[in-house]
Amino acid sequence: MTLFIPPTVDPPLRPLGVIQSLRAVRRNTLSVLPAISYSQPIVSGVTGLGRWHMVQGPEGLKRIFLDNVENYPKSQVMIRMLRSAVGESLFTSEGLGWRWQRRAIAPVFAARNVASLAPMMTQTAERASARIAAQSGPVEIVREMLSATFDVICEVALSGREHFDAEEYGAAITRYFLTAGRASLLDFLDVPHWIPRPGEIRGRGAVRTMHRMVARAIEARRRKGPGELEDLLDHMLKAEDPHSGRRMTPTDLLHNIQFFIVAGHETTALALAWSLYLMSHDETVQARAREEARAVLGDQAAGADHLARAPYVEQVLQEAMRLYPPVGLLARNVLAPDQLYERDIRPRDTVFLNIYALHRHQLWWDRPDAFDPDNFAPDKVEARDRFQYLPFGAGPRICVGANFAMMQAQIILMTLVARFRFAPAGPPPTPVMHMTIRPEPGVTLQATPI
Q1: How far lies 143's CA from each of 128, 276, 314, 416, 442, in Å?
Q2: CA distances (Å), 323 to each of 193, 312, 355, in order?
Q3: Where on the phi/psi map is residue 76: left (φ > 0), alpha (ψ -120 to 50), or beta?
């Protein structure tokens, strides 16, 4: 059987110096991943003043994510790139500050609450389907999926999106990723993080735009009072640290809501866009998913009770997130000496968790660069190391909204694939990572109603 080989990024032909690395990272973080990282569990090197290790082996990732997690806090460079937008939120905080915020937010994404949100996701899928059906020409899929997932996350966080201009907010996110969200030469030179980077200064307008909308929505939502279903803001307003009595300040609320809106809609939208792009190039996969979805749904939109009867649609999503994980590279600092694959890891080293190479690794996957949803057939999943596939991370800091994201994505994808036949209608996208892995210049498809 001929499998579709989707676009990837060619690794550098030789080791990169400081300036070359900086230029490559600013263009596309994936372009600095060395070829050897796709065939070895760990790669080490020195760039400028910094010693680093790139880990893409399941055993090493398990040690970092789970067994010795306290030794590997998030990289200060990565936190610096996010802090102006999301402050000391759940994503950027450590230790006790992280633990109490996690306890406060986790109930929102408990299985019972996520299931109660399914009707809202179904309505979103209906609206996305209607928008696509109304377009006579090619459809820009990333934009449509961002709009769909933005609807859902605003309902979950704030019980509505009436105080947001989705296009302006989305443009601000993109500006932020291209300015403050990029590595700086000062990071490579180990300049203290309290010294502003040029990108941070250029990104301040984007931060103001996002914060203004979020603050306005929080204030309106607080005046309105709680609704029938408790949303994320309700839980944050009630949250109290049992050890210190600490409650969330207005700034804490702003930063956490900001983080969940950005992360909660961007990553799911990209998984959907990549899924539709991949299926558009493999009619056999698309036809199988369509037949499954139509047999379950008929002409209705998907709901939570339909998902268990459409396992292949879920496999398509999982395979899309294998080839294009929402975040392809994470960074950790090292606090104390350790060993990974018999290699000495020293304090102040940087460890990169190379999810992109893990998911395309020659040792762990057959035909790693090919699109094959059967990689997630039940027997293959059962035989695979748990730490071989990590689209949502792992360990105590695994994505708190993973179940929510998967339900949302399955409902939308199942609805769309049952109603449309998708075909390529634009140039092949390049996977480009700044914070997330986006298809550039986008995903343009012809959507033909069935």
Answers
A1: 11, 13, 22, 15, 8
A2: 33, 17, 10
A3: alpha
Residue 10 counted as domain residue: no
Per-residue pLDDT 10s for the chain (450 aa) are 689 999 999 998 777 777 787 788 888 999 999 999 999 999 998 876 678 999 999 999 999 999 999 999 998 888 888 888 888 888 888 888 888 888 877 877 877 778 888 888 999 999 999 999 999 899 999 999 999 998 888 877 777 777 788 788 888 888 888 888 777 767 766 677 777 788 888 989 999 999 998 898 888 877 777 666 677 788 778 777 777 778 888 898 899 888 888 888 889 999 999 999 999 999 999 999 999 999 999 989 999 999 999 999 999 999 999 999 999 999 999 999 999 999 999 999 999 999 999 999 999 999 999 999 999 999 999 999 999 999 999 999 898 889 989 999 999 999 999 999 999 999 999 999 988 999 999 999 999 999
Q: Which domain holds residue 438?
A: 18-449
Say how far apart CA 150 and CA 128 lie, in whole Å: 11
Q: Alpha carbon of 14 to those of 17, 20, 34, 163: distances in Å? A: 10, 11, 8, 50
For the chain, what is the domain count? Answer: 1
* Residue 7 domain-assigned (yes or no): no
Nearest residue to 448 via CA among 412, 411, 423, 424: 423
Does residue 66 lie within any of the structural domains?
A: yes
Distance separating alpha carbons of residues 318 and 274, to the nearest angstrom: 11
Q: What is the largest CA-CA distance in the chain?
A: 61
What element of type H or E holds 143?
helix 141-158
| Residue 6 maps to a domain | no
CATH number at residue 177: 1.10.630.10
